């Protein structure tokens, strides 16, 4: 039987830094192909919150290496997120390709930061790396991880900074610093109690990326230097891409899949119903049943068996895209990403879409009439809270019936459907809007209303805008709306603490203090606004 406890082995990078790893060896003489994971959370965890234990892969004929990246766990050096991962990844590939018991053929797996380390390693073009399986990670660090539509993902940013700050304090034996960071990261809703740019908070997280992420505008060289997507031109490698409809990094997963599709090597995309972790049937408040159990370990093993062992198991002959249908609670296969002509649904209102009776959504454009404008107020003292979707503190599928009833949330709802409506692909909303400030935020949620009038979110998008006619990109979706249900579009000026509030000035987040946030009056020209839905038919499936 393969040993559960690993052998600890070390290597040196090109600049002399020692990196430590756990190595799980199969029974038998080998040689075996190598599976590598590089991660910053303590290598013994080995991403077992989403994957089988490394010993499971070792028992199936792989030499499994789980490495602490530079400055994490027991590895030497100073940790700066992403900045060393290309060179250190290349050095690690050279080392694992020479390990006793290995055959020089390497695959990589892992999610989140561990997914990004695969992309950085692939950018090195080391010949030993034959296949990767990046899951739930950023392709461009600014727009897939830190920001969305120009707005800082505040809760995610603060929570991750606190986690990394606590690990640094642990390494240095700083018990007080660890406690401070632990308290920030484990508060029920930490950012509702603090000023994001407060000097005390900056000081508490001074040894993390937190201050930089507040101060660096999206699109700057800072982000490009830390984004694997800027380094992967002409890299052609087989890849299994894994995402989740309620994972915060879904845009990165889809961007990586679309990028690698430009090459000749096989690509596979699987998007499940999950949030970032864990990959289980409970998604927010909804239990989806056995169909939502993760198939990733088994699929990943077949993927590695094909590319690292040469087993003719037919995995590349299967449909390249598998998407979980959130309405039917089942998987659907596609031969290509469902990119059909969007179907427009038009907003209608009597000017009181924030108060009963709510506005409507029509499949046919209404006749000409007097322009209708919905007006609402965003109050930073009581901002619309984050509830459901792809960001903490309450990710996944959540009931938002009471939230939709708030006067500062505009809602537009279809009539009940007489027959099912299948959706798969990109969702966009075009809004003609304005405000009494130079910059304001729009949170747009597409949800389903059941026959009893309860609403639950399907997908959402967020954008920091200056007004005019703007397009808010919601996250891609696969869902069948059942007969008797309705679709609802909900629009608000905030989603806090998922996103930082807007002070209306257009300044970088680090220059803004909580006392700067103004009350805003927002206006929506309903007659010039619409929803674009990816309606598909049964023949669209591959």
UniProtKB/TrEMBL annotation:
Signal peptide span: none
SMART domains: PepX_C
Domain Xaa-Pro dipeptidyl-peptidase C-terminal, chain residue ranges per copy: 301-530
InterPro entries to which the protein is assigned, alphabetical: AB_hydrolase_fold, CocE/Ser_esterase, Galactose-bd-like_sf, Xaa-Pro-like_dom, Xaa-Pro_dipept_C, Xaa-Pro_dipeptidyl-ppase/CocE
Record keywords, A-Z: Hydrolase
SUPFAM superfamilies found in the cross-reference section: alpha/beta-Hydrolases (SSF53474), Galactose-binding domain-like (SSF49785)
A Pfam match: PepX_C
GO MF, one example: dipeptidyl-peptidase activity
Keyword Nucleotide-binding set for record: no
Record-given protein name: CocE/NonD family hydrolase
Organism encoding this protein: Alloalcanivorax xenomutans
């Amino acid at each position: 039987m393969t040993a559960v406890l690993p052998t600890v082995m070390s290597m040196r990078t090109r600049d002399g830094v020692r990196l430590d790893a756990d190595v799980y060896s199969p029974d038998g003489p080998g040689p075996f192909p190598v599976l590598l994971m590089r991660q910053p959370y303590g290598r013994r965890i080995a991403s077992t919150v989403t994957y089988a234990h490394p010993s499971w892969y070792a028992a199936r004929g792989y030499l499994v290496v789980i490495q602490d990246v530079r400055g994490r766990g027991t590895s030497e050096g100073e940790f700066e997120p992403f900045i060393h991962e290309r060179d250190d990844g290349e050095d690690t590939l050279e080392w694992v390709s020479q390990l006793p018991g290995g055959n020089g053929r390497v695959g990589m797996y892992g999610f989140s930061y561990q997914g990004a380390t695969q992309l950085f390693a692939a950018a090195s073009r080391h010949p030993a790396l034959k296949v990767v399986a990046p899951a739930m990670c950023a392709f461009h660090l600014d727009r897939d991880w830190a920001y969305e539509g120009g707005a800082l993902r505040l809760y995610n940013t603060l929570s991750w900074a606190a986690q990394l700050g606590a690990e640094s304090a642990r390494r240095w034996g700083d018990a007080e610093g660890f406690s401070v960071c632990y308290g920030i990261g484990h508060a029920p809703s930490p950012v509702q109690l603090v000023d994001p740019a407060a000097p005390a908070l900056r000081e508490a997280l001074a040894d993390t990326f937190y201050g930089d992420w507040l101060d660096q505008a999206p699109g700057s060289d800072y982000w490009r230097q830390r984004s694997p997507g800027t380094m992967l031109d002409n890299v052609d490698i087989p890849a299994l891409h894994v995402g989740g409809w309620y994972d915060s990094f879904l845009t990165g997963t889809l961007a990586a899949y679309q990028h690698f599709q430009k090459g000749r090597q096989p690509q596979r995309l699987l998007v499940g119903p999950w949030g970032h972790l864990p990959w289980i049937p409970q998604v927010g408040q909804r239990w989806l049943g056995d169909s939502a159990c993760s198939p990733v370990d088994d699929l990943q093993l077949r993927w590695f068996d094909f590319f690292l062992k040469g087993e003719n198991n037919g995995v590349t002959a299967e449909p390249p895209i598998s998407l979980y249908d959130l309405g039917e609670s089942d998987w659907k296969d596609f031969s290509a990403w469902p990119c059909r002509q969007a179907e427009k649904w038009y907003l209608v209102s009597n000017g009181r879409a924030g108060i009963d009776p709510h506005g409507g959504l029509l499949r046919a454009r209404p006749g000409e009439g007097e322009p209708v404008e919905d007006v609402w107020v965003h109050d930073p003292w009581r901002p619309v809270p984050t509830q459901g979707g792809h960001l903490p503190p309450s990710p996944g599928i959540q009931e938002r019936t009471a939230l939709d009833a708030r006067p500062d949330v505009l809602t537009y709802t279809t009539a009940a459907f007489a027959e099912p409506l299948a959706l798969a692909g990109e969702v966009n909303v075009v809004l003609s809007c304005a405000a009494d400030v130079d910059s304001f935020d729009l949170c747009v949620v597409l949800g389903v209303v059941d026959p009893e009038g309860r609403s639950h979110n399907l997908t959402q998008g967020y954008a920091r805008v200056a007004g005019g006619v703007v397009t808010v990109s919601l996250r891609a979706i696969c869902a069948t709306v059942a007969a008797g249900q309705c679709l609802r579009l909900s629009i608000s000026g905030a989603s806090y603490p998922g996103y930082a509030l807007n002070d209306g000035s257009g300044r970088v987040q680090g220059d803004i203090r909580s006392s700067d946030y103004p009350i805003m009056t927002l206006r929506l020209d309903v007659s010039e606004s619409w929803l674009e839905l990816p309606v598909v038919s049964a023949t669209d499936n591959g």
